[in-house]
Amino acid sequence: MASIELKNITKTFEKHDVIKDLNLTIEDGKFTVLVGPSGCGKTTLLRMIAGLDPQTSGQVLVGGKDVSKTAPGQRGIAMVFQNYAIYPTMSVRENIEFGLKNNKVPKAERIELVESISETVGLKDYLDRKPSTLSGGQRQRVALARAMVKKPSVFLMDEPLSNLDAKLRVQMRIELIELHKKLGTTFVYVTHDQVEAMSMADKIVLMNKGVIQQEAPPEVMYHTPSNQFTAQFIGVPPMNITYVREKQLTFGFRPESAAIGRSPQQGLVQTSGEIITREMLGSETIYQIKTPLDTFMIKSIDDQYRVNETVYVSLPEEKIHFFDDQEKRIAQDSSLYLDKIQALRGQYYG
Amino acid sequence: MGKKRVSSVIRPYLMILPAMIGIGVFVIYPIFYLAYLSLHKYNLMNPAKSKFIGLDNYADLFARDEFYKVLGNTALYTFATVLITLVLSVAIAVWVSKNTKFNQFIQAGIFTPHIVSIVSIALVWMWMMEPSLGFLNYILKSVGLPTSQWLQSSSTAMASIIFVSVWQGIGYYVLIIVAALQGVSPSIYEAASLDNASKWKIFYKITLPMISPQLFFILIIMTIGSFKVFDTVRMMTLGGPNNSTNTLVYYIYQNRTTNIGYASATGMVLMLVIGILTFVYFRMLANKVHYQ
Ligand SMILES: Nc1ncnc2c1ncn2[C@@H]1O[C@H](COP(=O)(O)OP(=O)(O)OP(=O)(O)O)[C@@H](O)[C@H]1O
Ligand SMILES: [Mg+2]
């Protein structure tokens, strides 16, 4: 078990800074999810921790020890690759065993470890198979077993579920959460899927263009996003964010925060609009509503409204977020926030 | 309807007919004709006077010491050429497989002999290997090493021919192996480095198995090709000195006018030997080769 510290990390590819002066501490034993849009540098960051593609400058500390000059195999780190990177010429057993052999683990212990790990991930009957005869999910388990068997102090995973079908993905998500509970090891999990991030993380680290936007537990990140990017990246559909020209302010609200109805309702912001699209998702329905303010996505448990129907939309005061002109969210206890509330209050838009 | 059935049955055969005719005329017929010749005492001046003598040519062949000498030479040549080429080309390929400008230059350099005719190459090397005036001995002398008789001594002639063959062929195989190496997913190597594997272990547990299909392919085509070596011998030594570099195909060539039946019997034996070798390779190695 170990914490990870990145100090003033910079990574340059062909004179182009992908990551610049990044500082991050990943807590010991936590399930940390690195999330962000494609190309933001998540894989790059992970590979620097693993030592596969060392940083241009800065330090990587694992368990308080500077490993910047340590070879990948000696950092006490295991990694699950996006494409699994299983050794195709070796059987499942040999795949799992390879790291142990290289670390000179005695044979008897090795056999026992392989048996117990393969039991854990449900590969016991497949030990003598070649990877090419396995399904995607089974290969993913081989990759996991190969990582687990070394008893690493840190687990790195780069989008390990992205090649699986939706159902298996949900199942593996739960298995990974349980695995983390059982092992209690530091997990660093990379994904660009915010649903995955929300459902698995103890702590989410949200990146954009090589810069950390926010580090927080999922619920904190959802309810108090630090800026517009975070607000719109986390949550489906993303937060509605609108600029009100005559008031010169930007406010936003989550799709489920608005109330809709056939008659006007109380709220800080009240408006009405026409339903343009309607997505019925089962327990909830997502309406796209065109109001004089903007077009909003609104999520409701009520599925009775139809396309082309005009409905009233209202927003309660406590669910509204304001952003400053740096796109930062204005804290609820600041005086600026009260000014903005005042500005919006009591007006019907439409 | 019946007509339609007939045409759909016949059509595939019609389609492959041209290729089959080609194979028949240029492959099957010559083989049978070779077998036919090997059973005859053939008279070149007057083919009508040729006569069937059964297996006499074969009996004659197996009774002659020179046949065993030639067979042994060919086997030695093949074994050495294949082994040295494989080992060297893997080593060079691993060395130059990173796709940089410098490595591309080296690859091009190593490949160049392959596009030059073996006849020219043989001539150049003959000249360089000339014992008293040649470049190689000049070099050896100038650094104070003992000189060699190269092609002119029966103890070094075969080694010299093997050297030239390896030199000429290696670029081609390096190219094949480099392509194979570049086809291996880099993340497998990264996984291995995370698994704390040593360089050597990565090489024989990952690299070699990953390129085994190409190595197997090279092993087979090189064995077949080397068993049929002719031009190098013809150009450089004419089988000498003292038959020390005579090989099966050159031996056949030597007998082409004097004794066609005998030469044909040798040809049949050559075919058989290559067939058996290939079969043995497949039996022994095919399950060690990893196909994706
Ligand atoms: N080897 C490389 N050479 C040059 N540029 C690279 C290299 N690897 C990554 N980059 C660049 O660095 C940036 C970050 O890449 P990275 O792979 O870390 O993104 P990511 O966040 O993992 O994206 P994704 O979600 O698509 O996997 C990209 O702009 C990419 O083009
Ligand atoms: Mg990535």
TrEMBL record, chain A:
One of its GO terms (biological process) is carbohydrate transport. Residues 4-234 form the ABC transporter domain. Signal peptide: none annotated. SMART domains: AAA. CDD domains: ABC_MalK_N (cd03301). Transmembrane segments: none annotated. GO terms for cellular component: ATP-binding cassette (ABC) transporter complex, substrate-binding subunit-containing. One of its GO terms (molecular function) is ATP hydrolysis activity. Keywords: ATP-binding, Cell membrane, Membrane, Nucleotide-binding, Translocase, Transport. It comes from the Bacteria. PANTHER family: MALTODEXTRIN IMPORT ATP-BINDING PROTEIN MSMX, TREHALOSE IMPORT ATP-BINDING PROTEIN SUGC. This is ABC transporter ATP-binding protein. It comes from Paenibacillus montaniterrae.
TrEMBL record, chain B:
The keyword Transmembrane applies. It is found in: Cell membrane. GO terms for biological process: transmembrane transport. It comes from the Bacteria. Keywords: Cell membrane, Membrane, Transmembrane, Transmembrane helix, Transport. The keyword Transmembrane helix applies. It is a multi-pass membrane protein. GO terms for cellular component: plasma membrane. The chain crosses the membrane at residues 12-36, 75-96, 108-128, 157-181, 202-227, 260-282. Residues 71-281 form the ABC transmembrane type-1 domain. Gene3D superfamilies: MetI-like (1.10.3720.10). Coiled coil: none annotated. InterPro entries: ABC_transporter_permease, MetI-like, MetI-like_sf. Belongs to the binding-protein-dependent transport system permease family. This is ABC transporter permease. It comes from Paenibacillus montaniterrae.
